Amino acid sequence: MLSGFPASAGTDPDMQIRAYLVAVEGLPAEAVWRAAKRFISGQVRDHNRAFAPSSASFAEECRHQQAAIEAERRPRLEAEPEVPRPKVPAYKMQLLRDAANGSRNAKRELARMFPDNPIIARAARDAQEAAK
After folding, report:
1. DSSP state of 3
2. What pLDDT was estimated at residue 26?
3. Are 67 and 105 members of one domain?
4. Same domain membership, residue 68 and residue 19
5. Is 113 a member of any domain?
6. What domain count does the chain have?
7. Structural contact between residues 99 and 107, judged by C-beta atoms closer than 8 angstroms
């Protein structure tokens, strides 16, 4: 990797390699390879492409690559298929619209259709009291 950066020609390659090895200790080889490839191909942001990366920058990119590898290997969740639901008849939707717009007849009809629904029953009672 060091030969890919001409401005780093004056550095001692053995010392630089040792520094890299210390920095990436414990990281998987695939993450190290991906990080080196990204530096050599100029894909790492905010890196001066004329110089080899510091050992800290290289280790940081290796950790990013390790996280990417782990994310790629995680099992993907499959979306559950939608269960078809019965459609609401058009006349019921019209009753709901009319009741929302204040129709007393629509509220009474909904209360008759859904006697167990306390909200609709209360709205129908309110409509009946307002009619008196």
Report:
1. G
2. 94
3. no
4. yes
5. yes
6. 2
7. yes
The answer to whether position 101 is within a domain reads: yes
If asked whether residues 68 and 95 sit together in one domain, one would say: no
**Per-residue pLDDT tens over the stretch 54-100:** 899 999 999 999 999 999 999 988 888 888 888 888 888 898 899 88
What tens digit of pLDDT does each residue of 8-60 get? Answer: 566 677 888 898 899 999 999 999 999 999 998 888 888 887 888 889 999 99
**Cα distance between residue 58 and residue 54, in whole Å:** 6
DSSP output for 80-106: PPPPP-PPPPHHHHHHHHHHHTT-HHH
The reported pTM is 0.54
d(CA 76, CA 39): 29
Among 73, 99, 115, residue at a domain's last position: 73
- Closest-CA residue to 55 (of 90, 115, 13, 7): 13
Helix pair 55-73, 29-40: axis angle to 10 deg: 120
What confidence score (pLDDT) does residue 12 get? Answer: 77
Residue 35: domain span: 13-73
